[in-house]
Design a protein that fits this description.
The chain is mainly alpha-helical. It has one domain. It has helices at about 1-20, 30-40, 45-70, 75-105, 110-115, 120-145, 150-175, 185-220. The longest helix has about 40 residues, at about 185-220. It is globular, with a radius of gyration of 19 Å.
């Protein structure tokens, strides 16, 4: 609960304002335009969808990494839940990667082409949901005959977030030098999404380390 609460504070109190600052919508924290952009973002359903996906996924990964060894959940339920979480987070990473590369190459023209295909927020959420399902199925096909699913999944997410972050940072520098209008907002989302999922992976990893240490103590005590 402490780790989940701390992660929620990071997402809402650090990463969300960082999106606004990196996008160039405001020069500094506390300015009138910064507060206005904060309010506008919090009124956007897509922003809350991403935030809820991150917080819920982090909490589920913590639950799976701690409680499955104690409660003996059914293997198939465990796998499907893990794959659903991994699919949602990977969908965010892939979206941030594709959009960052797109605006890095074509700038705002890429967003105009996307807007012509996806005209509403509902269509954007449906596209994200389709990516979620696709990656969930891919993870299930890969993990269904393997053990220690959560640990493997966290390793994948950590590596993917590092790769996405490296590419998004380069694209962000490119669009800022081109003096684009909306493109920096997209690349700033890619950067913060990569950081958010990277930090998300550390929570369960920390608990795994504690669990290994406690298991070692139990073995020593039994000798």
């Amino acid at each position: 609960m402490v780790i989940s609460g701390f992660y929620a504070l990071i997402v809402l109190g650090v990463l969300y304002p960082a999106v606004i600052l990196l996008s160039g919508a405001s020069d500094h924290v506390g300015s009138p335009d910064f507060l206005q952009k904060m309010r506008e973002g919090l009124a956007d359903g897509f922003v809350w969808t991403v935030v809820i996906m991150l917080l819920a996924s982090q909490a589920l990964l913590l639950f799976l990494s701690v409680d499955t060894s104690q409660k003996r959940l059914k293997p198939q339920t465990h796998i499907w839940l893990s794959c659903s979480v991994g699919g949602a987070l990977t969908a965010l990473l892939v979206s941030g990667l594709v959009f960052s590369v797109g605006v890095g190459i074509s700038g705002d023209q890429f967003l105009d082409r996307v807007d012509a295909l996806i005209r509403t927020t509902g269509s954007a959420l449906m596209t994200l949901g389709a990516l979620w399902v696709l990656w969930g199925i891919i993870f299930y096909l890969y993990f269904r005959n393997k053990s220690d699913v959560v640990n493997r999944l966290i390793s994948w997410l950590l590596k993917g977030s590092v790769l996405e972050l490296l590419i998004a940072v380069v694209c962000h520098v490119m669009v800022r030098r081109k003096d684009q209008c909306c493109a920096p907002t997209v690349t700033s989302f890619g950067i913060t999404a990569g950081i958010a999922i990277m930090l998300l992976s550390f929570g369960p990893s920390v608990l795994f380390l504690y669990k290994k240490r406690l298991d070692a103590y139990a073995v020593r005590a039994g000798r």
